[in-house]
Specification:
The chain has two domains: about 5-125 and about 225-250, no CATH class; about 130-205, Orthogonal Bundle (Cd81 Antigen, Extracellular Domain, Chain: A), CATH 1.10.1450. It is elongated, with a radius of gyration of 25 Å. The protein has helices at about 5-35, 40-50, 50-80, 80-110, 110-125, 135-145, 160-165, 205-215, 215-245, and strands at about 170, 190. By secondary structure, it is mostly helical. It starts with a helix and ends in a 12-residue tail after the last helix. Belongs to the tetraspanin (TM4SF) family.
């Protein structure tokens, strides 16, 4: 490989690793958001599902590892250190295998995941009190934002302890369909209905979430494919540069 090609490969690999470092920071940030967020559907699942908490810690770990790899890759590329380039190539292979394995597991376990989410949500709806608990506040926010009611439909709310045992006709305020005349509009808690039929949305939140995933399926798939292509490109560049470096020269390692 000519000197010009080696230089071009070196700087392309440096640029790739810079992007990889930024990508790792985004993954870590997403993991922190899943762990700390209390204003979305994630918060609803997080308090009752240990799986999601474990997943958020995995995202933080993967993001941190990606940032470290990006940093080491930049150093290995600029100073042409074969051991760092080889380690970087090996880590990329392992990460790519892990990503493919995770995607396959999620695909084949999607029915189990759906059942777990349904169990968690129904548990929240049955014990809902409207007293501004984190999960209740997040669920109210979800229903209000995407205009849905219950998980599969408003009938899920009929199992709520307060609604079932009340002598009044109560319904979840966040389900309130403002286009239907009825009682005053509130953001959360349980409201009293003036008529036997609840003035609520008829669509369940499961359908709304699935519709969102389907409508954004192309974007999600594109991101996944883009990440895989970048990783393969990084593997190729690191291997080419590693082969072009004939001898270790640790004097190139920066001294701090």
């Amino acid at each position: 490989m000519g000197k010009g090609c080696i230089t071009a490969t070196k700087y392309f690999l440096f640029l790739f690793n810079l992007l990889f470092f930024i990508f790792g920071a985004l993954i870590m940030g997403f993991g922190l958001w899943v762990l700390l967020d209390n204003q979305s559907f994630i918060a609803v699942l997080q308090e009752s599902s240990s799986t999601l908490k474990v997943g958020s810690y995995i995202l933080i770990g993967v993001g941190s590892l990606s940032m470290l790899m990006g940093f080491l890759g930049c150093i290995g590329a600029i100073y042409e250190i074969r051991c760092l380039l080889g380690l970087y190539f090996t880590c990329l292979v392992l990460i790519l295998i892990a990503q493919v394995t995770a995607a396959v597991l999620i695909y084949f376990q999607r029915d189990l995941l759906k059942r777990e989410i349904s169990t968690v949500v129904n548990k929240i709806l049955v014990g809902y009190t409207g007293q501004n608990k984190t999960t209740e506040h997040a669920w109210d926010y979800l229903q209000k934002t995407i205009q849905c009611c219950g998980w599969t439909g408003p009938s899920n709310w009929t199992e709520n302890v307060w609604i079932k045992n009340s002598s009044q006709i109560l319904y979840p305020c966040s389900c309130r369909n403002e286009s239907i005349p009825g009682s005053e509009v509130q953001e959360s808690g349980l409201c009293q209905s003036l008529v036997p039929e609840w003035p609520v949305y008829t669509k369940g939140c499961m359908s709304s979430v699935e519709d969102w995933l389907l409508s954004n399926c192309g974007v999600i798939l594109g991101v996944c494919v883009g990440v895989a292509v970048l990783e393969l490109l990084g593997m190729m560049l690191s291997m080419c540069l590693c082969k072009s470096v004939q001898q270790e020269d640790y004097s190139k390692v920066p001294k701090y």
